[in-house]
Amino acid sequence: MEVGFIGLGVMGRAMAANLVRAGHRVTVYNRTREATGPLADLGAAVAQSPRQAAEGKDAVISIVTDDAAVSAVLFGEEGALLGARAGALVIDMSTVSPAIARQAAQQAAQRGLRFLDAPVTGGDVGAREGTLTIMVGGDEAAFSDAQPLFSVMGRRIVRVGGPGSGQTMKLAANLVSAMTLMVAAEGLQLGLRLGLPAEILGEVMPNSSAASYELAKLLDRHARQDWEPGFSVQNRLKDLRLAVEMAEQAGITLPMAPKALELYRQHAQEGAAPLDEASYLRRLLG
Amino acid sequence: MEVGFIGLGVMGRAMAANLVRAGHRVTVYNRTREATGPLADLGAAVAQSPRQAAEGKDAVISIVTDDAAVSAVLFGEEGALLGARAGALVIDMSTVSPAIARQAAQQAAQRGLRFLDAPVTGGDVGAREGTLTIMVGGDEAAFSDAQPLFSVMGRRIVRVGGPGSGQTMKLAANLVSAMTLMVAAEGLQLGLRLGLPAEILGEVMPNSSAASYELAKLLDRHARQDWEPGFSVQNRLKDLRLAVEMAEQAGITLPMAPKALELYRQHAQEGAAPLDEASYLRRLLG
């Protein structure tokens, strides 16, 4: 397919490269032009604006930082919605609020475009290896037409429901993983401070009902004292904030999440924003 | 070996049966005598008191409800410490405070006995199948001498450190699993209330960084609407309380656990005490 691709961060650059390698004709755009170099070397064209990246394409994909960035690359004068031809797919793979996803779906529909919100999980490794889980909100036919693209980037591709539901799923899952990390760190801290050897904790806990993806990650990071992202504290904080706001707007009580958000915000403010999310354990051991 | 076995609850009766089947000569004691019937049918002798169960044995094992019950079956006039012969192993497999484990180790040593605290994880299924994880505190030689017993009851048998350290490990691991369940329930609640289908949550979340043992359990219990224990709310609450107290006594701050304990106590007080721990999700969904 002819594809415009907007946003070449850690995730985007790997996903765009997989599309090029799979034979799609890809035109990339990134706010800072340096990032486009490796993609151009692979054979991608380079556009001067999101609007240009979208022009004449079958599909345009965006994966950017936050709601404001999605607004800028989709809705602005130089945004992709003005560039895309009627009937084109517009697929936002950023992790942002369900509200902006629904807004994008609406604006896209007004221009005769077909919008999907399609956030991903699986990290930079999954992006490189094309093994992401992709959670998709939007109509069935658009979902079906996007399969040739999704299947190159991900392994588990799930249509959740209507517009915004991909983001809702992503935020709910991220809320769970963020807090699972925090409670695992709390228990590891307790054991370590009471003198339990890290190796024994690492042998017992992942083989007990305490087992989780985040616990295993913490044990690995602690053993190597490696706090490079990975998944940064500032991105975790953004997702936690979005999940808590989403719940508040819907009038849903989250008993523990507000406290988790407060703790994680403190952690970010104390200089950890660019570190990996796992650095929360180091903070507790302080 | 000649073994006294005290406490035939869901866990104890299955563990004692495995010892009998493995060829150990087992004498059982239980506060209510009815529970001894099935073990007697298997070939176990039945004692009239913990003291009598311990008399002349190579080892005496206890697995009872709480600190008070451990005190009663070990330290009392009719307790096992008075019955056991010099050099015998005294192994408490209850989940109780590290403080009482250290007290038992001390009193046992004064009588020439060798004490191990050896709490288990793996639930009633692990107890029946002999696949428990056993966390052991106490000296190396006693640990080694107890292997013929542990190997019948468990698969992963780990010496954590000195007296009380088995209990410390157990409480730290249980703190993590209890809170992992609570945060997973919180995220599932959010998704379900926002209209995400349970099957889609069950497809995506366990394949994302939200994955945990407790999340999988919640999804299964919710799908079957099955809230029979399993692991009861009242036992969870006991373990949470012990972990928070252990941290307080050591002057260690747990940022989220006090809130978790408060929430779980409310859940128990609202009639859920005998239900499975997973009923916390049903509570959140109201």
Structural features, described:
The structure is a homodimer of 286-residue chains. Chain A is α/β, with parallel strands linked by helices and 286 residues long. Chain A has two domains: 2-162, NAD(P)-binding Rossmann-like Domain (Rossmann fold, 3-Layer(aba) Sandwich), CATH 3.40.50.720; 169-285, N-(1-d-carboxylethyl)-l-norvaline Dehydrogenase, domain 2 (Orthogonal Bundle). Chain A is 55% helix and 14% strand. Chain A has 15 helices and nine strands. The first copy, chain A, has helices at 10-21, 37-42, 50-54, 67-75, 80-83, 98-110, 123-129, 140-145, 147-153, 165-193, 198-204, 213-224, 233-249, 257-272, 279-285; strands at residues 2-6, 25-29, 45-46, 59-62, 89-92, 114-117, 120-121, 132-137, 154-161. In chain A, the strands form two sheets. In chain A, strands 3-2-1-4-5-6 form a six-stranded parallel β-sheet, sandwiched between helices. A three-stranded mixed β-sheet of chain A has the order 7-8-9. The longest helix of chain A is centred in the middle third of the chain and has 29 residues, at 165-193. The radius of gyration of chain A is 20 Å and the shape is globular. The N and C termini of chain A lie far apart (52 Å). At the A-B interface, strand 9, helix 10, helix 11, helix 12 and helix 13 of A face strand 9, helix 10, helix 11, helix 12 and helix 13 of B.
